[in-house]
Design brief:
4 helices; 83 residues; single chain; 78% helix
């Protein structure tokens, strides 16, 4: 069973213009955005393969994904407030 992707744009569709703007104009945001999607991809791959991996490792990836998403959302909201 294929698990749902947690694409930032899919999860936050109301912010897609701001996300695009920040990806193109803020190197730090772009780096965090890429890191978020790398972690998301790794979590999805591990869960889809159902490969033997320690639960602690997957949970640590999920926690990292949440922290990255929170940081990205904070940057998005700060940018939108400034406009």
């Amino acid at each position: 069973m294929e698990l749902e992707k947690h694409s930032l744009v899919k999860d936050l569709p109301e912010h897609h213009h701001t996300i695009r703007h920040l990806k193109m104009n803020d190197a730090h945001f772009a780096k965090l955005f890429d890191s978020y999607h790398e972690v998301e991809s790794e979590v999805r791959d591990l869960e889809n393969r159902n490969s033997p991996v320690k639960d602690d490792y997957i949970e640590s990836l999920k926690v990292r994904r949440v922290h990255l998403k929170d940081e990205l959302l904070g940057m998005i909201q700060k940018t939108e407030k400034a406009l």
